[in-house]
Amino acid sequence: MTSGRHLELEATPQDAGPRVVIVGGGFGxxxxxxxxxxxxxxxxxxxxxxxxxxxPLLYQVATGGLxxxxxxxxxxxxLRGKKNVTVLLDEVTFIDPRNRCVQLESSRIHYDFLIVAxxxxxxxxxxxxxxxxxxxxxxxxxxxxxxxxxxxxxxxxERELDPGVRKEWLRFAIVGGGPTGVELxxxxxxxxxDTLRRKFRRILPGESEIFLxxxxxxxxxxxxxxxxxxxxxxxxxxxxxxxxxxxxxxxxDGSVTIQSADSTRKIAARTVVWAAGVRASSLGxxxxxxxxxxxxxxxxxxVSPDLSIxxxxxxxxxxxxxxxxxxxxxxxxxCPVAMQQGWHxxxxxxxxxxxxxxxxxxxxxxxxxxxxxxxxxxVDLGWIRFGGTFAWLTWLFVHLLYLVSYRSRVLVALQWAFxxxxxxxxxxxxxxxxx
Amino acid sequence: MTSGRHLELEATPQDAGPRVVIVGGGFGxxxxxxxxxxxxxxxxxxxxxxxxxxxPLLYQVATGGLxxxxxxxxxxxxLRGKKNVTVLLDEVTFIDPRNRCVQLESSRIHYDFLIVAxxxxxxxxxxxxxxxxxxxxxxxxxxxxxxxxxxxxxxxxERELDPGVRKEWLRFAIVGGGPTGVELxxxxxxxxxDTLRRKFRRILPGESEIFLxxxxxxxxxxxxxxxxxxxxxxxxxxxxxxxxxxxxxxxxDGSVTIQSADSTRKIAARTVVWAAGVRASSLGxxxxxxxxxxxxxxxxxxVSPDLSIxxxxxxxxxxxxxxxxxxxxxxxxxCPVAMQQGWHxxxxxxxxxxxxxxxxxxxxxxxxxxxxxxxxxxVDLGWIRFGGTFAWLTWLFVHLLYLVSYRSRVLVALQWAFxxxxxxxxxxxxxxxxx
Lengths: 435, 435
Hints:
- 2 copies of one chain form a homodimer.
- Chain A has helices at 27-36, 58-62, 75-78, 130-133, 140-159, 163-169, 179-195, 225-237, 282-291, 335-353, 389-402, 406-422; strands spanning 19-23, 42-47, 51-53, 72-74, 85-89, 94-96, 101-103, 108-110, 113-116, 120-122, 171-175, 209-214, 240-244, 247-252, 255-259, 264-267, 271-274, 278-280, 301-302, 308-309, 312-317, 322-323, 325-326, 329-330, 368-373, 376-380, 385-387.
- Helices cover 32% and strands 24% of the residues of chain A.
- The two termini of chain A are 43 Å apart.
């Protein structure tokens, strides 16, 4: 019996209500769990990590402004009061829609409703070897790794005798001019110009060169052109050189090759960060294959207006792993979309349990924002858009508001206050082995 | 020239004053650097990490109470105002006393005075394979690893179907009843009884068994017997079973074998932490060999009353790597000893530069303390000793006082306040791969 003893892990008895299994504790899954917990259902939330990660602030961990635990709330803490929610730290290896169960590492769980909210993963568009030289920012470990690389670059420059190599250590390249790329580039600019000022004896961190490469014609391509322009101006003031309309054709240990309309250029930079793209997690593709659902080029699974997949009204796909169309346009892979979809699924399930039908999902776009640095941000609320100090304060406020735990809010606010007044970032520690 | 270009890294010109090289940015080295920076000398502080670590609170990182960056201050921040101090992130591979230089990874540095303050490392007394199963607590990485193991144990128990295996996941063993062992055992007791209460659905974390093994006749053997007794009572109230007079004879993946005067017992515990001993860092032994200095069984280098080594008045050895006798007794490897020795070396160097002689080093013992948990601690100030809430408050106050940066003090105080009122520890995130 030893080998089989883990195989079947029977969930709570039937009389506890329909069994809802949620895979993924990100913005979509966590919000679904919270709102479903009010219904007479038995919920199991499965995640391979024991915390909910507030990804919008991950770049601040990567740049030494915050600690990992400041933006990571243990799932058991967030859901502690919900008696009908069981949290399992486990990985779903595949979904078996025919038998209505999910396979975990060493057990399987049956569901009456399944919510797939497994998010996205880094994507190098067929150039996986680049990941060694140009890490991307998706997990806590990615963030501490990138933090270590950025900080080590300055340390290596201080130790280096060859002026050419020293320059290469002080050259940083960010691939991708979306919000993550812009925020990272801005933060590195601040580190070089403010944080590390006067802290070295042989180098001037302010002489660092920071490149931001974007394939489109402007940074923040998803925002209105005037905000892109504002963001670009702020970046330039922080010493960031934005190169738009360029494609990265090669990355190796120490250089990035870029191609623009008329030329090819190799830039010798020892620190490169990839912020150019993600794709839906592989579980979505496995599910799509099993049920013959449509998948887009980013691996997202096409969903019906109620967020379930065709022919399987009991399976919902939400968040970054979901391909959801509204008024002929695909919804972007952002937190607000995932959160609203999480709430919506609980409405659909509630209606079904009561024998009714919920209205189709409609995303209410509340706007977008990105911060570039100290008192520099851009905010687009649809009916109004603005940049500068007020945009920055709005950004601060909204991000604090959406942080999951009260403790995090206070700790993050305090560290931002320290950072504002001292120009310092104190979580600047290099941990783990690099490269 | 390529292969040779790193070889010689010439320090600042001679007219900047005598060159003092400090190896290690712990309590000894950092305090030496701070007080020496007031003298007309040129200081180079070399550390293989980019931060000063406040080791007395490391167990709180290992038990999810604090984040690594809360107790790690970047060396460049601490020493930013000191114009005559250069910080280098590098590792000293050996000391060449004859040529008065230290060899780094890719360069060498000359010194007029050398201060060796490289501290201690984990020691398994010839049983190095045990380190795989029973990690010890010395670095930030050790702490996050142990944190991951403790938290994963509860997660694994929640997932486990076999009641026997589940019990093994809920059994914790700490080897070594000194301050670190006592503090760890107490914190695990609090996690099981308070922090995780009601956060699991299939296990009762409060049913965990926590063992503390000590070879001597009582826990905290360096403290007076009545305080050991108080500590033991507090531990028992937290559910910790202290077994004194026992020797660990074997550790493997899943069990610890202990031997007492009359019996041998194998305890099936899936989480084991080693807190039984350290030895001086290997650089001390290399130095001792090079200059034929005496070394004790823990690898510490015997120093003269002025903390220099015999025949080499220009080389000082301080902190955990130093074997220093006072009134016929060896000074312990504690922070206060290292700090006072750091200050003293700067006095000795000052006196030498002025053509005088400093009085011999005298350690002023200000007492010892250990905390067991919420409102539970023991304090021994020599002239008075006490336990309970007041001891706990004293412990809190002293530790906050000695934290290096102002920012850390506020953040740590705040997190302790949260922890006190909510019974929660929020930095409970599992990071990196385990085992």
